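Support request from a user on the community tier.

User writes: "When I paste my structure tokens into the form, the page sometimes reloads and wipes my input. The last time it worked, I copied everything first. Here is what I submitted, just in case something in the input itself triggers the reload:"
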């Protein structure tokens, strides 16, 4: 019996040797990962193991996720260490992860159940993460390809994390730097997050500051966020957010306030906003004001129609509430001002198909500053509407001045064709 046991152990050792020699561990791991990720997985060689006293270190060489023609991720080397004590108890607790020359390619196709699984997963760092010489290529981003290269990063489970790299997009290039304080337990907490992206001409073209970010119980919370952008043409933009909460599982976002400032001539504020991208519904209060509109449009490269006076409108403001429930929308203007003309009303309709219904009131309007006045008299011809006109409703003007035309209580209606 002793000889039989020895022969059995010998055959087992030979079998394990042959299994290892023909790449059995690599094949099994490829199949397991491919089933889990729902995409082909390739390894260059068998995994390597280092048996330490407190941890097991695993090294994967030449990892590729995706096909050879369309990879999603390539890694020259992936190393991670797992603590022995939790592993022997049936739990995997990763201590360190090292990614050597990772290359990410996107966008990734959506896999079945991916949205539900990501929505139900609490985010936390599995362990200390280090990245050396990383890169990214993401196509279809606003019609262009975003490329990151020379990415060096260190993100401890708790402590100061940082990342640097180079970027290229739409013939623009520069460097970027990210730093933060990380606290990761059952959730993820970031403190003092700062992102700085520079171009060749402007070293601080884009800066983002976030004092705190929390991901806990499937809820993302950002108490405050500030973004500043500028270019070498003296254009500046600032965005500030207050009390943002996102629930990916319910596909909802709530926001107490947001402010957008473009130079000194444009200001927009949104208050008490609620959005649901699952049902495409939402509501928000708003205040929008702009000065020197022709110059503002020219400065930002926007189209502006040719008016009688090229310097008007000099001032535009409106405030109210916007609500929508796909495909309908309801846009109320409580207070509006076009130069010196107060106006208010409602704009309702649908965007699929496009149908707009107006119910607007203007106290006094001098139209001569905007459009050439028609010749007065019985033969006066007003501008014609396009053949296909999706707008119905009414526009009531208390006092209309247009060249030699003087009129009061003017009512303009647009009916269905």
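"...and here is what came back when it finally went through:"
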């Amino acid at each position: 019996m002793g000889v039989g046991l020895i022969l059995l152990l010998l055959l087992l050792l030979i079998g394990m040797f042959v299994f290892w020699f023909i790449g059995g561990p690599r094949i099994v791991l490829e199949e397991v990962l491919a089933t889990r990720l729902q995409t082909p997985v390739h390894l260059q060689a068998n995994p390597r193991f280092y048996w330490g006293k407190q941890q097991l270190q695993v090294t994967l060489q030449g990892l590729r996720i995706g096909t050879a023609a369309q990879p999603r991720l390539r890694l020259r080397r992936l190393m991670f260490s797992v603590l022995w004590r939790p592993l022997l108890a049936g739990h995997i607790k990763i201590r360190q992860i090292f990614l050597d020359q990772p290359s990410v390619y996107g966008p990734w196709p959506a896999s079945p159940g991916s949205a539900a699984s990501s929505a139900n997963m609490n985010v936390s760092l599995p362990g200390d993460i280090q990245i050396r010489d990383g890169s990214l290529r993401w196509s279809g981003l606003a019609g262009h390809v975003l490329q990151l290269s020379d990415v060096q990063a260190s993100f401890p489970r708790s402590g100061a994390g940082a990342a640097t790299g180079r970027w290229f997009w739409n013939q623009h290039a520069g460097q970027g730097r990210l730093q933060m304080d990380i606290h990761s337990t059952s959730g993820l907490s970031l403190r003092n997050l700062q992102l700085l992206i520079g171009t060749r001409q402007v070293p601080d073209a884009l800066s983002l500051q976030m004092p705190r970010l929390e991901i806990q119980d499937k809820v993302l919370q950002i108490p405050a966020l500030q973004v500043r952008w500028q270019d070498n043409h003296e254009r500046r933009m600032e965005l500030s957010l207050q009390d943002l909460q996102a629930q990916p599982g319910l596909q909802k976002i709530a926001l107490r306030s947001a402010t957008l400032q473009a130079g000194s001539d444009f200001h927009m504020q949104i208050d008490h906003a609620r959005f649901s991208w699952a049902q495409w519904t939402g509501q928000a209060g708003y205040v929008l004001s702009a000065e020197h509109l022709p110059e503002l449009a020219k400065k930002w490269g926007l189209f502006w129609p040719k008016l009688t006076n090229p310097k008007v409108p000099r001032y535009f403001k409106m405030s109210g509430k916007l609500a929508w429930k796909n495909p309908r929308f309801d846009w109320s203007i409580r207070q509006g001002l076009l130069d010196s003309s107060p106006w208010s009303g409602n704009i309702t309709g649908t965007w699929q198909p496009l149908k707009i219904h107006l119910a607007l009131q203007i106290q006094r309007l001098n139209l001569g500053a905007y459009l050439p006045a028609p010749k007065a008299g019985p033969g006066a011809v007003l501008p014609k509407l396009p053949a296909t006109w999706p707008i119905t409703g009414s526009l009531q003007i208390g006092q209309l001045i247009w060249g030699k035309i003087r009129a009061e209580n003017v009512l303009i209606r647009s009916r269905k064709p």
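Agent notes: The reload is a front-end session timeout and is unrelated to the input. Residues 2-21 form the longest helix (20 residues). Confidence is low (pLDDT under 50) at residues 114-119. Escalated to web team.
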